[in-house]
Design goal:
Elements (H helix, E strand, L loop, with lengths): L1 H17 L4 H13 L10 H27 L4 E8 L6 H13 L3 E7 L3 E8 L9
Antiparallel strand pairs: 1-3, 2-3
Helix pairs in contact: 1-2, 3-4
Length: about 130
């Protein structure tokens, strides 16, 4: 079952890149999705995929809300933080995690470190100093 989800993810990416649903492109996409190497040592759990899909659904309105916040109240502070990869993630789920972080306007993944961390750049509102300044 999970192999089908990885295949579906690869096909979705292929169709988004090519923007062509012709029969020839579908055949090429299926062939490429099957030929690409897989990581057979780590298997994803269906619960992880469902959780990732839910996070995608939640990220869409969040992205719109953050975009409006940035327009109405400019964010002048920024920082870079290291975030840990969730345990037991397959490469497909790691890709979705990076996509979700980058999808929202306030954050972007700068680098994925092989030791299981993301380098994330964030913009935020500058906090006002205490004492009325």
């Amino acid at each position: 079952m999970i192999g089908y989800l990885d295949l579906l993810l690869r096909l979705t990416i292929w169709f988004l890149l090519t923007a062509d649903l012709s029969p020839a492109n579908i055949i090429i996409g299926v062939c490429i999705a099957l030929i690409l190497p897989r990581n057979r040592t780590v298997t994803a759990v269906l619960k992880d995929w469902l959780h990732a899909i839910w996070e995608i659904i939640v990220a869409i309105p969040t992205a719109y809300i953050e975009a409006v916040e940035i327009i109405l109240r400019p964010h002048t502070a920024e920082d870079t933080v290291m975030e840990r990869v969730k345990p037991n993630r397959t490469p497909g789920l790691i890709f979705l995690d990076i996509f979700l972080i980058t999808f929202t306007p306030k954050t972007i993944v700068l680098k994925y470190h092989e030791d299981g961390r993301y380098e994330v750049h964030r913009v935020r509102r500058r906090k006002l100093k205490q004492g009325g300044e």
